[in-house]
């Protein structure tokens, strides 16, 4: 039984009618404002974890007739929200934050509404040029050397994720190396990472054809704060060279996902240079902190790097998705990624990215896909609305909360901080009771994080290092305030007391 409730008769469907557009869109904005007002009242982790729950609630087939906006939004509220984990909740401390903000949303709304596709310069010149400007602005803000801005011969692009950025730079490095040794040489290419490097790097290496046996994972230890050392990399590289292999690419991390560890970029750059390797710096999360002078040292060390990436969608108030990738040699990147079918020739504009960049850039040649989103708008809105000082204060506020939490944990002898805190991530655990010592299944700490998650009052994720099961508290939500961190600590203490009491 189909009820024709729609206010959109099929024979005169006008999907971009400006009046309907305004009404429907403001209904969504009102819905979201209400959501943000109440988001701290939802259980932060999805309350309803029953698999298949939504499929049972929804009809088997798409509706025959269009339905009114209110009815769809009611279903979102009733059926969808209870199955969501609320990433914008102030008590979300899991993974890393994925920031939303009014400015990020406004910019995203604009770019989605304009819906232009800047794959070649002429396809939307101002969109390409705005992207060139904002990636230069960001490069300056995080303290990157001149070689990564357009006027210094480098340049940046906005992609959807670090994973894509890593694949693109791996392809660039691969093709550069294969030009020297011939395509059959691909089986001799070796890539290097640490045991703390994000898994995305291994996936990227697989995607560009690096033999799995040539993926080196260098062990890190507590002594270096779980950072790579130049010596360890040099030893691995020399070993491979002695066997006739070709060092290709080294991935350094500023702010590793598990522990927030920072690899020494300058030292690694020297090793990479000496052995002809591409050095990439993955600053997905902590790159945002580099806008503060106290953290800038990390990225101005990138003088010897070939590429750097960071995700403003994590800790820089820019709604998903937005990853800045900077390269020192755009020509090496585009040599691996460019295509020139006749239908895309830039007849009215500078061809092939040859002229005064960023004006002459065809961003399709800086990424995997052809079509692309106009991401520059939202990052531009964030930078203009909040300003560099506003953003620095935002970052420092989170770091201060993490510092407070770190001190609280250290002051409670039942707990310990497991790795040095550098930014807004604190890795800690309950000192395991002696009965737990032998087991590395997490014991009481696994129970602790599970109980906290199940309470719906905070959400954290665990990590394992040196056989220790640790709990990560990643501060960085746009709505997170000191009181939320304090509440989380009280919840952890109370829960720990109960668990320890039961043993
Ligand atoms: C989050 C994260 C990634 C993955 O980022 P995507 O944009 O999701 O691909 C990579 N590296 C580090 C250090 C991260 O924290
Ligand atoms: C909560 O804690 C557990 C640890 O038991 C962890 O494995 C998981 O990732 C967290 N999330 C959920 C969905 O419970």
Automatic annotation (TrEMBL):
<dbReference type="GO" id="GO:0005737">
    <property type="term" value="C:cytoplasm"/>
</dbReference>
<dbReference type="InterPro" id="IPR015424">
    <property type="entry name" value="PyrdxlP-dep_Trfase"/>
</dbReference>
<dbReference type="InterPro" id="IPR015422">
    <property type="entry name" value="PyrdxlP-dep_Trfase_small"/>
</dbReference>
<dbReference type="GO" id="GO:0016831">
    <property type="term" value="F:carboxy-lyase activity"/>
</dbReference>
<comment type="similarity">
    <text>Belongs to the group II decarboxylase family.</text>
</comment>
<dbReference type="GO" id="GO:0006520">
    <property type="term" value="P:amino acid metabolic process"/>
</dbReference>
<keyword id="KW-0663">Pyridoxal phosphate</keyword>
<keyword id="KW-0456">Lyase</keyword>
<dbReference type="GO" id="GO:0030170">
    <property type="term" value="F:pyridoxal phosphate binding"/>
</dbReference>
<dbReference type="InterPro" id="IPR010977">
    <property type="entry name" value="Aromatic_deC"/>
</dbReference>
<protein>
    <recommendedName>
        <fullName>Tyrosine decarboxylase</fullName>
    </recommendedName>
</protein>
<dbReference type="InterPro" id="IPR002129">
    <property type="entry name" value="PyrdxlP-dep_de-COase"/>
</dbReference>
<keyword id="KW-0210">Decarboxylase</keyword>
<feature type="modified residue" description="N6-(pyridoxal phosphate)lysine">
    <location>
        <position position="314"/>
    </location>
</feature>
<dbReference type="InterPro" id="IPR015421">
    <property type="entry name" value="PyrdxlP-dep_Trfase_major"/>
</dbReference>
<dbReference type="GO" id="GO:0019752">
    <property type="term" value="P:carboxylic acid metabolic process"/>
</dbReference>
<dbReference type="Pfam" id="PF00282">
    <property type="entry name" value="Pyridoxal_deC"/>
</dbReference>
């Amino acid at each position: 039984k189909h009820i024709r409730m729609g206010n959109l008769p099929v024979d005169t469907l006008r999907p971009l009618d400006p009046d309907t557009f305004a009404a429907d869109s403001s209904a969504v904005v009102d819905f979201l404002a209400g959501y943000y007002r109440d988001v701290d009242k939802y259980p932060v982790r999805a309350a309803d974890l029953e698999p298949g729950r939504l499929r049972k609630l929804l009809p088997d087939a798409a509706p025959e007739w269009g339905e009114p906006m209110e009815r769809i939004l009611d279903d979102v509220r009733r059926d969808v929200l209870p199955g969501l984990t609320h990433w914008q909740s102030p008590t979300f401390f899991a993974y890393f934050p994925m920031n939303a903000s009014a400015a990020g949303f406004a910019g995203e709304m604009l770019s989605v509404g304009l819906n232009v596709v800047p794959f070649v310069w002429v396809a939307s010149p101002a969109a390409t040029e705005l992207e060139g400007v904002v990636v230069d602005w960001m490069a300056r803000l995080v303290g990157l050397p001149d070689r990564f801005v357009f006027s210094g011969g480098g340049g940046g692009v906005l992609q959807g994720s670090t994973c894509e950025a890593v694949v693109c730079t791996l392809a660039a490095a691969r093709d550069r190396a294969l030009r020297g040794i011939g395509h059959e040489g691909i089986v001799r290419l070796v890539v290097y990472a640490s045991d703390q490097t994000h898994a995305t790097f291994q996936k990227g290496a697989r995607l560009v054809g690096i033999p799995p046996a040539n993926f080196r994972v260098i062990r890190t230890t507590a002594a270096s704060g779980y950072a790579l050392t130049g010596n360890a990399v040099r030893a691995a590289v020399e070993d491979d060279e002695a066997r006739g292999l070709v060092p290709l690419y080294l991935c350094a991390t500023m702010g590793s996902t598990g522990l927030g560890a920072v690899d020494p970029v300058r030292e690694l750059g020297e090793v990479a240079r000496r052995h002809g390797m591409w050095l990439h710096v993955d600053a997905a999360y902590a790159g945002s902190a580099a806008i503060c002078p106290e953290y800038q040292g990390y990225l101005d060390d990138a003088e010897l790097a070939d590429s750097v990436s960071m995700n403003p969608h994590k800790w820089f108030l820019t709604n998903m998705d937005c990853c800045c990738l900077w390269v020192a040699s755009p020509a090496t990147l585009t040599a691996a990624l460019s295509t020139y079918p006749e239908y895309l020739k830039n007849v009215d504009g500078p061809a092939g990215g040859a002229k005064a960049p960023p004006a002459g850039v065809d961003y399709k040649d800086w990424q995997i896909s052809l079509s692309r989103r106009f991401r520059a708008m939202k990052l531009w809105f964030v930078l203009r609305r909040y300003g560099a000082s506003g953003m620095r204060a935002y970052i420092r506020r989170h770091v201060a909360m993490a510092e407070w939490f770190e001190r609280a944990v250290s002051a409670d002898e039942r707990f310990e901080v497991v790795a040095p805190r550098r930014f807004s991530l604190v890795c800690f655990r309950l000192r395991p009771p002696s009965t737990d010592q032998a087991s590395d299944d997490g014991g009481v700490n696994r129970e602790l994080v599970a109980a906290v998650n199940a309470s719906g009052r905070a959400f954290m994720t665990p990590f394992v290092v040196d056989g220790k099961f640790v709990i990560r508290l990643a501060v960085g939500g746009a709505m997170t305030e000191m009181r939320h961190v304090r509440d989380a600590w009280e919840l952890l203490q109370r829960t720990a007391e109960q668990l320890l009491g039961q043993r």
